[in-house]
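Case study.
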Amino acid sequence: MVTTVAGIVANGILLGLVYAIAALGLSLIMGVMGIINVAHSAFIMLGSFLALGLLEWAHIDPIASFFIALPIFFVVGAVVYRLIVTRVERAHQTQGLIAMFGLMVLIENLGTIAWTTDTRVITVGYSNANLTVGPLIIADAPLIAGVLAVVLILALRLFLHSTMVGRAIRAMGQNRDAALSLGINVRRLSAIMFGLGIASAGAAGVALAMIFPFAPQTQIQWLAWAFLIVVLGGLGRVESTLVSALMVGLIQTAATAFLPFDYVYLILYVALATILSVRRQGLRGVARRAI
Amino acid sequence: MIRRMDAVKLDVQKLVAGYIPGHPILHGVNLKIAPGQITVVLGPNGAGKSTALRVLAGFLAAESGSVRLDGDEIVDLPTYRHIESGIALLPQGHSVFPDLTVAENIELGGWILRGDRRRLHQAVDDVFTRYPHLRDLRNKSAGSLSGGQQRTVEIARLLVSNPRVLLIDEPSVGLSPVIASQVYRELTALKAEGRTILLVDQDIRAAIRIADYIYVLNSGKNEIEGDRAAFEGDLGALVRGWLGV
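After joint prediction, the assembly is written out as follows.
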């Protein structure tokens, strides 16, 4: 029993770490810029196919693809910001939502044309290997994906809290006009923030592809998961997104251990409803939008 | 009244601006801001006072007109170029970044100095020397401070970039009379250092007390103007009656 619980905790934490990077970009973009980026999961899907493509065509391991994805998706995010988001960011939030929804549909359909609706898996040397620690057995792929997620989370937190640009981005999320009044170029920082959010989505796509099968149409599942974590954790804080994602990972792993997978969604959304009925602002308990 | 002055720091000519194109709030406003003085802009709600400040700070584009700083046209420059030109805005209401510490708030005041870390650290240190009580609060989150302390952080943050022109929008809003009077004393001290101040205020009595020159706007147009002496006399009573205070 102790071994089972330890296994659930270990695997739940690893899964939660990967979920955290899947939700982090959504949370930061929404928290800092007020943009509800429903296309977030489409970039997660693109990250998964980037890992598959690099593996099939260039024999690049997904661990390397994780780091390759970051600058590629950062540039993609900055371009999307310049071409689409700048046109809707000062408009009513609904316009931004519609624009990003359109982008999500476009990417998913282009993905279906390019890769069909077939489900893919990434198989490398460690895909079916396990790490045994005493009686505890941990699969290598989630372990590696979890470690990569920790590296990204720490790097993002370090950037946002220990650099002046990061602090300016946090300031912009708390009071855009005041940031402007200090000479901060909010448009440039918004492009950086959006780029970072999409970069974390792309990297999350690589990490998720190491663990789960994927197809263009399955991206919507990650959107639901990411929103669940953001609603639970509140907007824009790395720490609260991490805590919320770890909870989701633990609940999912525990439910999967004892129940058919179909019950996992039910349990997660009942847990979400329960938490929100007790703490209406989610786990963080703070209404303010801030990072 | 025709104003005579030897030098003009900020020269606003025929300024037309608003939030919706074709529906201006300012209809040709003219302001001449003398260097090293406190110029006050008064007017009823909707007169265009804050709109004028937002244009001068680069927050809002003008539809037409001219804004010259030391003779250089700045009306079309983006906000950060206004700051680099030496203009700083203290917005209306509290504008600290509540989740950032006092030190982080003040450091961001030197955003335009970030390329020169030594100069930035010196500027931040100078501000902490000027407001020593903030040094003790440096690691507290700004949102946890009292209203007066937050106002001090905002003014301190403004001074890190050593601006030549300070645009101050309703500095006493939300503050107790005691704290508000401290803020006005601070503005007088900043003037004594040679800084140029353009103050928009609803607290007419307090503003006139520290003003060197006063403009009154109404419906986005210049209504009357004069020096403090003129406004302390009958003209002041006339304006107060006219504004209903």
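Observations recorded in class. The beta strands of chain B are 10-17, 26-33, 38-42, 62-69, 72-73, 87-90, 165-169, 196-200, 213-218, 221-227. The radius of gyration of chain B is 18 Å. We will return to this complex in the next lecture.
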